[in-house]
Q: What sequence folds into this?
């Protein structure tokens, strides 16, 4: 029988097991190794961290020698990603940052000790270290006290912290809303002072912070803080402030768990589809996400104005992939506007009346068959395809023979105005 004493590092293990193995290996090599940042905060709050970060006094090149499999994409900032047991563990060398000329990233880093590493971080609740071997919390910045008092406080001078990296303003709001904490007075004043500088941050980074804030159940609190701080004037410049307030109120009425497209559509429902397009473009969202958001923003008033629906149009709506999120958006919109839900009750009754009737049956005739029956290639075929399928959904036609007769009658009615030969 084979021995199982040697652990196969390539097997899948938990994040916690992987990070403990990385810490032990660094310790065995004679270096400090501690957990740092958000994972320490989450553990002290009794939450399971999504990711674990390790801080060490080993230099990046040394880390790469200790571990056989690493990614060194952030080595210039002292960060190496260690691949262990199918997990990626970020290992950062203790460092202090120099100046931030662009308000986004440090111009240079200096490798240092734990205390100076803590002092260069953003907020006190993110500035603690934890020794997983001795279960000791190492706190140079008062993070544990602020955690107990539910406070978001910048480490050191808040003006300097936000001047270094302007995205920290959105991060402060995200932490405050998600954790139900309040932002310390001096930290809040610094956000007010630096709010207009958020436009210097890349669209991708802003979009990522917004998504993290908006998919959380406390999203409306976060967006209200963005509004109160003035950050909205640069981020949502295409919306006027009353439109944004309307959008925040719609967001407030959405369920706790929502997708980012639905929540963003809720926020933008206070404005127009054109404004939604403009924001998606500004944030450089993917084409797929942009289409989803704009479809929801356009679909909400269009659906509500169409109720009651014909049988065919009801089936067309039901066949849409985003119909369920659209109903959720419509419900939140009506609640935010102080309107009753009678339209949605009426729609629900119509849906129930369909029973098991298929909502997207195969088409009885395709475009080639329509041309053979006499339809002129081009716009006529497109129009005929749509009207024929709607008639099928309305149960006006049920067989291929019915469809053929329907098309012949349609062509007779439209021959004069749609046949290019008669123009």
A:
């Amino acid at each position: 029988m084979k021995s199982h004493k040697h652990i196969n590092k390539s097997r899948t293990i938990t994040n916690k097991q992987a990070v403990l193995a990385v810490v032990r290996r660094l310790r065995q090599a004679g270096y400090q190794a501690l957990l740092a940042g958000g994972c320490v905060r989450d553990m002290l709050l009794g939450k399971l961290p999504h990711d674990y970060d390790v801080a060490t006094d080993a230099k990046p090149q040394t880390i790469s020698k200790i571990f056989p499999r690493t990614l060194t994409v952030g080595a210039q900032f002292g960060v190496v990603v260690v691949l262990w047991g199918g997990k990626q563990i970020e290992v950062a060398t203790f460092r202090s940052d120099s100046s931030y000329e662009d308000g986004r990233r440090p111009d240079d880093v200096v490798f240092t000790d734990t205390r100076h590493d803590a002092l260069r971080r953003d907020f006190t609740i993110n500035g603690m270290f934890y020794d997983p071997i001795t279960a000791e919390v190492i706190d140079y910045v008062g993070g544990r006290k602020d955690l107990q008092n539910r406070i978001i406080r910048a480490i050191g001078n808040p003006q300097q912290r936000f001047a270094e990296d302007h995205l920290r303003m959105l991060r402060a709001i995200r932490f405050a809303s998600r954790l139900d904490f309040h932002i310390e007075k001096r930290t809040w004043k610094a956000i007010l002072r630096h709010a207009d500088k958020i436009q210097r941050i890349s669209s991708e980074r802003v979009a990522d912070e917004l998504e993290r804030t908006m998919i959380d159940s406390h999203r409306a609190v976060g967006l209200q803080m963005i509004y109160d701080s003035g950050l909205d004037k640069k981020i949502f410049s295409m919306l006027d402030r009353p439109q944004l307030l309307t959008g925040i109120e719609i967001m407030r009425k959405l369920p706790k768990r929502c997708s980012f497209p639905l929540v963003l559509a809720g926020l933008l429902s206070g404005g127009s589809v054109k404004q939604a397009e403009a924001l998606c473009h500004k944030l450089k969202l993917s084409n797929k996400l942009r289409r989803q958001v704009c479809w929801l923003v356009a679909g909400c008033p269009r659906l509500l104005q169409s109720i009651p629906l014909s049988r065919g149009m009801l089936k067309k709506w039901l066949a849409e992939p985003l119909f369920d999120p659209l109903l959720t958006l419509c419900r939140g919109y009506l609640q935010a506007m102080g309107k009753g839900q009678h339209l949605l009750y009426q729609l629900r009754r119509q849906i129930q009346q369909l029973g098991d009737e298929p909502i997207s049956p195969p088409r009885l005739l395709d475009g080639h068959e329509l041309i053979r029956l006499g339809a002129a290639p081009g716009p006529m075929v497109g129009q005929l395809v749509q009207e024929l399928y709607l008639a099928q959904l309305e149960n006006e036609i049920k067989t291929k023979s019915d469809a053929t007769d329907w098309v012949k009658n349609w062509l007779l009615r439209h021959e004069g105005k749609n046949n290019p030969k008669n123009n």
Summary: The radius of gyration is 29 Å.
